[in-house]
Design brief:
Elements: E1 7-13, H1 17-27, E2 32-37, E3 44-46, E4 49-51, H2 64-74, H3 82-88, E5 100-106, E6 109-114, H4 117-127, H5 132-155, H6 169-174, H7 184-187, H8 193-206, H9 216-223, H10 237-250, E7 254-258, E8 261-266, E9 272-276, E10 282-290, H11 309-314, E11 315-329, E12 340-344, E13 356-361, E14 374-383, H12 388-402, E15 410-414, H13 416-421, E16 430-434, E17 453-455, H14 465-484
Parallel strand pairs: 1-2, 1-10, 2-7, 5-12, 10-17
Antiparallel strand pairs: 3-4, 5-6, 8-9, 9-10, 11-14, 11-15, 11-16, 12-13, 13-14
Length: 485
């Protein structure tokens, strides 16, 4: 039967990457509508500079195998052949394994995170000379865990997305894990405060999750990811989104800009009714996919809000990440400064207020992000939503410590995007805090909330970064396709 106007098989609330993947997978044979927030902009341009804010460093370095898997699933032009693969592998001057993934700056130390273990070991010996043997034992233990993870990857069923494991109790029993059960805080308790902070800053900058009780296996997956994985170089998230959007429109998908959704009613005959802010008429759909931060969707379901509330308690935003965009001259960068770095100013103070900064510097000579001879600097800081003026002051004081004479080389410092966009319900940049004891390979929030209500986004797998978003999108898309097959 021909569907009536404003009736769809799937409505996606939000334009995050995971929801866009789901919409594209279904749009060729099903009526799909994506609701986009009118006010929200995912990037910012100014005076020839282009800024793309991020939640973690994994959004700045895309895994090659994830791009290839995504391209295959969506039927994008990128193939997995050797010639195409070579095009996307990150190219770095010098020997490939001598590349540096990022840099950690402590008050009295600066450590380059070399992908080659021997070079990284030299860095640690220089900065933590009194703990050399203890640190070596620590990393040997993690490499043994990494070998277990790789063995599990080799045995994983083809339909599963490693490291994600099915939530089913039966499948969980059949896929018995041999990973250690210890926690990272227990393992690090005998190390110096500086080394503990060095590890913690890496874990936070690589994922969206802050917890003192992360499992050792999850920490290993995050900390040793760079030793074996290949990274794509010629695509950032926004370019990836544009490519997928093109496929979505080509397949017949629709997008409507809205200010927000007032209410979603769940009808007994398995139908959803959506009321849109400032607009007459209703939207109807068989399936709903929530694709915005879950805590921003408060009271969306009215009296059936209890469906969402347990999951909002499971993972909560600890802090908001807000960006400062700086256009600078290349002379402002100190010798040895890396393109990705995390810095803490005072080990004894909280992370908020500009004390911890996550920084991304555009590549030298890349005129897609900055004019010639200049660099785009994106500074993400943790904001507890107290005085914005005081927060700005703390961030700038921290930057002037990192970049001597920076004030002489600044083209502009732009806070306007953060002030305008951080109040949007689509705003995705948060540092989350999960309840203890979650099984990290099963995710924190399930992709399916109820029979016809799905959720995809960073809170499914907050510690997997962009990979987690892609995996949740592919998982939801395949599950819904099975429902219709």
């Amino acid at each position: 039967m021909k569907r009536q106007a404003n009736e769809y098989e799937l409505i996606v609330l939000g334009t995050g990457l995971a929801g866009l993947i789901v919409g594209t997978l279904l749009s060729e044979n099903h009526e799909v509508l994506i609701l986009k927030e009118r006010k929200f902009r995912s990037f910012h341009t100014k005076e020839g500079y282009r800024f793309l804010p991020f939640s973690n460093f994994q959004e700045k370095r895309l895994k090659l195998n994830i791009i290839l898997k995504l391209a295959q699933a969506l039927g994008l032009s990128l193939s997995s052949g050797d010639r195409e693969k070579e095009k996307w592998v990150q190219s770095t001057p010098g020997k490939p394994k001598e590349k540096v993934s990022s840099q950690v700056i402590l008050p009295k130390a600066r450590i380059d995170l070399f992908c080659k273990p021997s070079l990284f070991k030299t860095e640690l010996e220089r900065e933590f000379p009194r703990e050399t043997a203890q640190i070596e034992t620590f990393y040997q233990e993690m490499r043994q865990i990494r070998q277990l993870l790789e063995a599990m990857r080799a045995k994983a069923s083809p339909e599963l997305f490693f490291p994600v494991m099915a939530r089913s109790l039966i499948k969980r029993w059949l896929m018995f894990e041999t990973l250690p059960k210890g926690r990272m805080d227990e393992r690090l308790s005998l190390f110096s405060k500086e080394f503990r902070e060095f590890i913690q800053l890496q874990l936070i900058s690589l994922g969206n999750l802050h917890s003192d009780q992360l499992s050792i296996s999850l920490a290993t997956h995050l900390l040793l990811n760079d030793e074996q994985d290949e990274w794509a170089s010629e695509m950032d998230i926004e370019k990836l989104r544009e490519t997928i959007f093109g496929k979505y429109f080509e397949s017949g998908g629709r997008v409507e800009e809205i200010d927000g959704v007032e209410k979603v009613e769940m009808r007994w005959r398995r139908e959803f009714i959506l009321s849109i802010k400032g607009r007459q008429g209703l939207l109807r759909s068989n399936l709903i996919l929530l694709n915005s931060p879950l805590h921003r969707l408060s009271n969306l379901l009215g009296r059936r809000e209890k469906v969402l509330s347990p999951w909002r308690e499971k993972v909560k935003p600890r802090s908001m990440l807000i960006p400062l965009f700086l256009g600078i001259r290349e002379k402002a960068l100190p010798v040895g400064m890396r393109d990705l770095l995390v810095s803490i100013l005072d080990l004894n103070k909280p992370y908020e207020g500009g004390n911890v900064l996550f920084i991304s510097i555009s590549r030298k000579g890349d005129e897609t992000d900055a004019p010639e001879g200049k660099r785009a600097l994106i500074v993400q800081s943790l904001w507890d939503q107290n005085s914005f003026t005081e927060h700005q002051k703390g961030v700038m004081e921290h930057l002037y410590r990192l970049f001597p004479f920076l004030e002489k080389h600044i083209e502009f410092a732009d806070w306007s995007w953060a002030e305008e966009q951080s109040s949007c319900w689509s705003y995705p940049h948060f540092l989350y805090e999960a309840t203890p004891g979650f099984r990290w390979r099963e995710g924190v929030i399930p992709t399916r909330i109820t029979k016809n209500l799905y959720f995809s986004g960073k809170e499914n797998f907050p510690y997997l970064g962009l990979e987690g978003e892609v995996l949740s999108g592919l998982m939801v898309g395949q599950e819904i396709l099975k429902k219709y097959s």
